[in-house]
Design brief:
By secondary structure, the chain is α+β, with helices and mostly antiparallel strands. The chain has one domain: Alpha-Beta Plaits, CATH 3.30.70. 33% of the residues lie in helices and 31% in strands. Strands 2-3-1-4 form a four-stranded antiparallel beta sheet, covered by helices on one side. Helix 1 crosses helix 2.
Length: 103
């Protein structure tokens, strides 16, 4: 399993609810249809910081999710809401444990 973490800084705080709704309604369907999709989480960290983490079977699939997300930002005209490109970290998940419960 591979994970991609995107950290967005300088997020327009007045638009976080709108952003979360758009992610749920328009980005999630795109990501979940990608081959190897295993999960996605969006985190509101406060102070204009949001992070996302996506899980895919392979690194190539995880990298594709970053391209899909970047295209989505442009198509949804979210450049003002997300004014800075995300800091992206990706790699193989080498340890994980879940209890099978999802939020």
């Amino acid at each position: 399993m591979h994970a991609t973490v995107r950290r967005y800084e300088g997020v327009d705080k007045s638009r976080t609810d709108e952003l979360a709704k758009k992610v749920d309604e328009t980005l999630m369907p795109r990501l979940s249809k990608l081959p190897g999709f295993e999960g996605y989480y969006l985190i509101e960290a406060g102070d204009g910081v949001m992070s996302s983490i996506g899980f895919f079977e392979t690194s190539t699939q995880a990298e594709e999710s970053s391209r899909v997300a970047a295209t989505w930002v442009r198509e949804e005209n979210l450049e003002a809401t997300l004014p800075n490109p995300p800091k992206i970290t990706g790699g193989e998940v080498i340890v994980h444990k879940t209890n099978g419960i999802r939020p």
